[in-house]
From TrEMBL:
Name of protein: Protein-L-isoaspartate O-methyltransferase
Family: Belongs to the methyltransferase superfamily. L-isoaspartyl/D-aspartyl protein methyltransferase family.
Example GO biological process: methylation
Keywords, in A-Z order: Methyltransferase, Transferase
InterPro entries: PCMT, SAM-dependent_MTases_sf
Length: 217
């Protein structure tokens, strides 16, 4: 077993399972997708640590969110094998690669066009389409979605994304609209959106989903 394979097993056993992730499909995906393939070569030693991993190559900071939070969000999303899923702010594509193991079709968006190109090359999967797009915009062309997953946090209500949810669909991510930040699930039922907090969680805020700066005299 290679060093990365051993580290991947330890990540799942020590970070993911111990945080109440019991969904066999999610665990299998995290055991088989090589996270190191989505990390720049000079940072691969950090691949399997319990941290939000900076994979930025440009001015804007972009991250792969912590493995345990990744697993918990995927479990909460309850992705079905035929589901059409949008991954928002995919960075280099790791969360999209995991989602592709669970869903029928995946659209992944990334606001940094250079990172989007890297994600597209790293993913190269038949059921994933990767696009450069603002996080707040989603991708209406492939909507409506059964599931939308945020690879990070939002400080505002993502109205455009919610508008791309199918009836019966759900959005999962971290809401930092109030303190403490929490993982949430938003469900679309009978034209209404229901918000439910799942657990306390912190993640980097996605570009374009920041709270507007308050005006100061």
């Amino acid at each position: 077993m290679s060093g990365f394979s051993t580290a991947r097993l330890k990540m799942v056993d020590g970070q993911v399972r111990t945080n109440d992730v019991t969904d066999r499909r999610v665990l299998d995906a995290m055991l088989t997708v090589p996270r190191e393939a989505f990390v720049p070569a000079d940072r691969q030693a950090l691949t399997y640590l319990d941290l939000d991993l900076d994979v930025s190559e440009g001015a804007a900071k972009r991250f792969l969110i912590k493995p345990q939070l990744t697993g918990k969000l995927l479990q909460a999303a309850e992705i079905g094998e035929g589901d059409n899923v949008l991954v928002v702010g995919c960075a280099t594509g790791y969360l999209a690669a995991l989602t592709a193991k669970l869903a029928g079709q995946v659209t992944a968006t990334e606001c940094d066009s250079a990172l989007a190109a890297k994600a597209k090359a790293a993913l190269n999967l038949a059921n994933v389409t990767c696009k450069a797009a603002a996080c707040a915009d989603g991708d209406p062309s492939a909507a409506p979605y059964d599931v939308i997953i945020l690879n990070g946090a939002t400080e505002v209500t993502p109205e455009a994304l919610l508008g791309q949810l199918k009836e019966g669909g759900r959005l999962v991510g971290v809401s930092a609209e109030s303190r403490p930040p929490r993982a949430i699930i938003v469900t679309h039922t009978h034209g209404e959106f229901g918000h439910r907090a799942l657990f306390d969680a912190a993640a980097p805020v996605l570009p374009g989903l920041e709270r507007a700066a308050a005006f100061v005299f």
